[in-house]
């Protein structure tokens, strides 16, 4: 006898909301129904271990497509439903009460979908009628549940021999579809579409999934590669999985496979690509890891699972402990998610450190591909991740053509060395040619080479390493000369006070000061920065929009032991009017050495020509 029942008022409202708002993609219905079938089989298998009445079976899920009837059916041999369970589970959407569930939905505090059993109702996204044929091992009869998902549902007893459930969806017609939406209901009647959706969302459901038209070949792999024992997985299998899963033609540089058990359980399979994708440093690049829950695909690029400084990592996380929202399309932001991200940060770092120590050549390949991401990670968030990342940095130096770490630099510093010295420039050779390097070579101090634009920003945040300050050799306050030399220069500077003042006057506001240098050996002059931004930082900032007025404080240093200084003194004593030309030439010479363009090429050429003619 057929019984007709009304959906409760709250259930009707929720059902309408679910089919029109909650799920953003129509294809999700297949994932939900397959997941429900898998859960039903799980339950039957568990009960069969202790209850002979339940019995075991050759567990499987079968999808049948009927183009003539315009239907899809998903059939399993799981636990099935009794009549009471049909009413409880399908007649009332939330077992805990529809009103309570609505309140939770309104407050945006909806817990994991499995708690409420609402996945079944995704059927009505694509169907105007749903039929459920089911039989429980605890019932002599089978039952048929039918509804259009609007007002009522019916239940009637039927003859059904096999335990399990078959859900039949009567698909809507394509003409009911919004013209702006490219998805059509009839596409779900095509074998290739179902195969694609099973592969995308349910490839790792633990029970075999078949199309009724081909019961020889399963649609899903069932056992995810990341759930296999590490000893059972070959490098070839991992590489093949990576290339297929993440559309890369090259094998990964490194694979990280981890499993965590305890209060929070998850598995992660991570890969570091050999090289960044073409859009890696553009705004269009999306970081993120694939997310699975119990082997079911949930999200393609979850940004919260990976930190920005490790955004080059591709891979996936599978966890049953995360709080999914009602549609299983998004995650609730919770402590578990943050904890996984923190754990993965530590795991990635430890793997990189291990590579740095035991596979140095491989690490250098990684570093050259992704160094700017690590450096930005230190600069970002005001140095919050400095301690995590600083030992992963590599630098070339004045004493080494090979990369070294900061720890290695400190371990071999001179005994009397107080600071970590660095210099900035476009290339190593450009830095080696800096006149400021003279004193560093003479005193035997090793200098780190900063050749990337991000380096200047990074070092302002780092400030120190192992209680040693970072010190640029291109700043005015560099203090490496011997006490004897300092005294000699201080004496000469007092004697040359007038000429230095005249040169500063001649250069007007181009420099903030003119001084005798303690650092120059062979070069006649150099430019160094005073307080504020460095010379290299000025170059970087001026490339940015609306930053043309940025200006570093420039100090012109003159070598007191160079013949040019003797010439300057003679000019100042005999014909001070020529000093302006000498000052301009020396200033522009210093600009060229520092990699700046000449400010006034015509003036520079004229002054140089005039002085050359005077000497002829």
TrEMBL record:
Major location (coarse): cytoplasm
Gene Ontology molecular function, alphabetical: ATP binding; ATP hydrolysis activity; ATP-dependent protein folding chaperone; unfolded protein binding
A GO cellular component annotation in the UniProt record: cytoplasm
Subcellular location field: Cytoplasm
Domain Histidine kinase/HSP90-like ATPase: 25-175
UniProt xrefs under CDD domains: HATPase_Hsp90-like
C: region residues: 540-616
Region (A): 1-328
Family the UniProt entry places it in: Belongs to the heat shock protein 90 family.
Subunit structure: Homodimer.
PANTHER family xref list: HEAT SHOCK PROTEIN 90 FAMILY MEMBER
Record-linked HAMAP family: HSP90 (MF_00505)
Protein name, per record: Chaperone protein HtpG
Organism field: Acholeplasma brassicae
Gene that this sequence comes from: htpG
């Amino acid at each position: 006898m057929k019984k007709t029942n009304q959906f409760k008022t709250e259930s009707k409202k929720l059902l309408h909301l679910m089919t029109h708002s909650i799920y953003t993609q129509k294809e999700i219905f297949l994932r939900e129904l397959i997941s429900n079938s898998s859960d039903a089989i799980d339950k039957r298998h568990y009960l069969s271990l202790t209850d002979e009445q339940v019995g075991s079976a050759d567990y499987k899920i079968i999808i049948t497509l009927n183009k003539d009837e315009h239907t899809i059916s998903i059939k399993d041999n799981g636990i099935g439903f009794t009549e009471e369970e049909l009413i409880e589970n399908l007649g009332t959407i939330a077992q805990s009460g529809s009103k309570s569930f609505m309140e939770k939905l309104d407050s945006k505090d909806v817990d994991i979908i499995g708690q409420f059993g609402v996945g079944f109702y995704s059927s009505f996204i694509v169907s105007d009628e749903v039929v459920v044929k089911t039989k429980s091992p605890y019932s002599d009869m089978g039952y048929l549940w039918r509804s259009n998902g609007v007002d009522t549902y019916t239940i009637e007893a039927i003859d059904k021999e096999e335990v399990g459930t078959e859900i039949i969806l009567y698909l809507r017609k394509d003409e009911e579809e919004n013209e702006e939406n490219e998805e059509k209901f009839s596409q779900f009647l095509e074998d290739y579409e179902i195969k694609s959706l099973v592969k995308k969302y349910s490839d790792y459901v633990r029970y075999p999934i078949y199309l009724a038209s081909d019961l020889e070949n399963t649609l899903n792999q069932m056992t995810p590669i990341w759930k296999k024992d590490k000893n059972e997985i070959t490098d070839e299998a991992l590489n093949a999985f990576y290339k297929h899963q993440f559309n890369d033609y090259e094998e990964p540089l490194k694979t990280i496979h981890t499993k965590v058990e305890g209060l929070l359980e998850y598995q992660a399979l991570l890969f570091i690509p050999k090289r960044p994708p073409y859009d890696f440093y553009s705004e269009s690049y999306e970081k993120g890891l694939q997310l699975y829950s119990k082997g079911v695909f949930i999200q393609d690029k979850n940004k919260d699972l990976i930190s920005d400084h490790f955004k080059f990592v591709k891979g996936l996380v599978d966890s049953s402990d995360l709080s999914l929202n009602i549609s299983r399309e998004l995650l609730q932001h919770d402590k578990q998610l943050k904890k996984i991200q923190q754990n993965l940060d530590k795991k990635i770092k430890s793997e990189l450190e291990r590579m740095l120590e035991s596979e140095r050549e491989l690490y250098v390949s990684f570093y050259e591909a992704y160094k700017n991401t690590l450096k930005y990670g230190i600069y970002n968030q005001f140095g919050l991740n400095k301690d995590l990342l600083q030992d992963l940095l590599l630098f070339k130096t004045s004493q080494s053509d090979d990369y070294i770490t900061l720890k290695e630099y400190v371990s071999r510093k001179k005994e009397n060395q107080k600071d970590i010295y660095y210099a900035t420039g476009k290339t190593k050779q450009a830095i080696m040619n800096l006149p400021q390097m003279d004193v560093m070579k003479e005193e035997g101090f090793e200098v780190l080479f900063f050749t990337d634009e991000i380096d200047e920003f990074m070092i302002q945040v780092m400030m120190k390493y192992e209680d040693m300050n970072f010190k640029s050799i291109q700043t005015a306050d560099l203090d490496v000369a011997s006490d004897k030399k300092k005294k000699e220069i201080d004496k000469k500077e007092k004697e040359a006070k007038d000429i230095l003042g005249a040169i500063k006057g001649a250069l007007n506001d181009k420099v903030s000061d003119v001084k005798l240098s303690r650092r120059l050996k062979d070069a006649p002059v150099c430019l160094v920065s005073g307080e504020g931004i460095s010379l290299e930082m000025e170059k970087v900032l001026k490339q940015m929009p609306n930053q043309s007025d940025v200006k570093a404080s420039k100090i012109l240093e003159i070598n007191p032991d160079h013949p040019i200084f003797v010439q300057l003194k003679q000019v100042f004593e005999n014909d001070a009017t020529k000093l302006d030309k000498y000052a301009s030439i020396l200033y522009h010479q210093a600009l060229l050495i520092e990699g700046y363009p000449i400010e006034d090429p015509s003036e520079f050429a004229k002054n140089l020509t005039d002085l050359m003619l005077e000497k002829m």
